[in-house]
């Protein structure tokens, strides 16, 4: 193939198995911010080097992952290493939380429905303004095309400009729906908060090559208006 864009690389063995049977001029892998040992503000691509990874170096101190998620993290790290083992010219795209009209994560629609119908939204006050990286569903695909067009190689963070917070989401929905959110401060409903530590992704590496990321508010308003149509 001229190129392979792999969106289901969940472990190293699956990547190795694929390359037993196919060859490609360019391999692009969708990875995850879970590959990073810890999540922080301004997370840079160099904070994790997959070539240095081995299962033996896994540290159980990862505080933002459950036991099941830790297995996912190991798999994504191993998949990245396999990509570079196949070709040093591979492209690895590290993606944060994904949201949009067609995202598997139902969070935006759940918030919209809850505010529109006056349902209680349980939120942890300490996490209300916590910043975290996010991307719209089509952004990783657009970047993959950019990487092909410009014959890129290496590791790239792909995330919207700015950052997401629960406060931003509530404020935008209140404006769109013309209703106040019925917030109950507490930690009783896991559907209505994101339990990552505060983090953002540094995307300067991609921007210096000419790629332009959409701002969080620009696409988020469009998506929320799409979900809100049902209640207007």
Give a quick summary of the entry:
This protein has seven helices and eight strands. By secondary structure, the protein is α/β, with parallel strands linked by helices. The strands form three sheets. A four-stranded parallel sheet has the order 1-2-3-7, with helices on both faces. Strands 4-6 form a two-stranded parallel sheet.
Write the layout of secondary structure elements.
Elements: E1 3-6, H1 12-21, E2 26-32, H2 67-86, E3 91-95, E4 97-99, H3 107-117, E5 120-123, E6 134-136, H4 139-149, E7 154-157, H5 166-177, E8 182-185, H6 204-207, H7 216-228
Parallel strand pairs: 1-2, 2-3, 3-7, 4-6, 5-8
Helix pairs in contact: 1-2, 3-5, 3-7, 5-7
What attributes does this structure have?
8 strands; 232 residues; 15% strand; 4-stranded parallel sheet; alpha/beta; two-stranded parallel ribbon
Helical amount: 25-40%
In terms of DSSP E residues, the strand content is: 5-15%
Q: How many strands, what sense, and barrel or not for the largest sheet?
A: 4 strands, parallel
- Secondary-structure element string: EHEHEEHEEHEHEHH
* Poorly predicted sequence stretches spanning 5 or more consecutive residues: none
Number of separate helices = 7
Sum up the overall morphology in one term.
Answer: elongated
The secondary-structure class comes to: alpha/beta
What is the end-to-end distance?
A: 48 Å
How many β-strands, per DSSP?
Answer: 8
What is the mean pLDDT?
A: 90
Order of adjacent strands in the largest pleated sheet: 1-2-3-7
What's the alpha carbon Rg, rounded to whole Å? 19 Å
The oligomeric state is single chain
């Amino acid at each position: 193939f001229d190129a392979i864009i792999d969106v289901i690389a969940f472990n190293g063995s699956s990547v190795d198995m694929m390359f037993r049977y196919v060859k490609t001029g360019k391999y692009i892998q969708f990875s995850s911010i879970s590959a990073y040992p810890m999540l922080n503000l301004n997370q840079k691509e160099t904070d994790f080097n997959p070539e240095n990874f081995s299962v033996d170096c896994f540290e159980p101190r990862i505080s933002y992952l459950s036991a099941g998620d830790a297995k996912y993290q190991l798999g994504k790290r191993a998949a990245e290493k396999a990509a570079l083992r196949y070709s040093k010219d591979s492209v690895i795209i590290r993606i944060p939380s994904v949201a949009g009209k067609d995202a598997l994560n139902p969070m935006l629609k759940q918030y919209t429905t809850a505010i529109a119908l006056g349902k209680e939204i349980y939120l942890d006050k300490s996490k209300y303004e916590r910043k975290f990286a996010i991307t719209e569903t089509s952004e990783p695909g657009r970047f993959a095309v950019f990487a092909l067009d410009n014959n890129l190689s290496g590791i790239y963070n792909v995330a919207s400009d700015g950052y997401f917070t629960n406060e931003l989401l509530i404020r935008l929905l209140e404006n769109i729906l013309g209703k106040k959110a019925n917030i109950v401060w507490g930690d009783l409903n896991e559907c209505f908060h994101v339990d990552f530590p505060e983090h953002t992704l540094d995307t300067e590496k991609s921007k210096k090559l000419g790629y332009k990321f959409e701002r969080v508010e620009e696409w988020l308003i469009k998506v929320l208006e799409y979900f809100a149509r049902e209640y207007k």
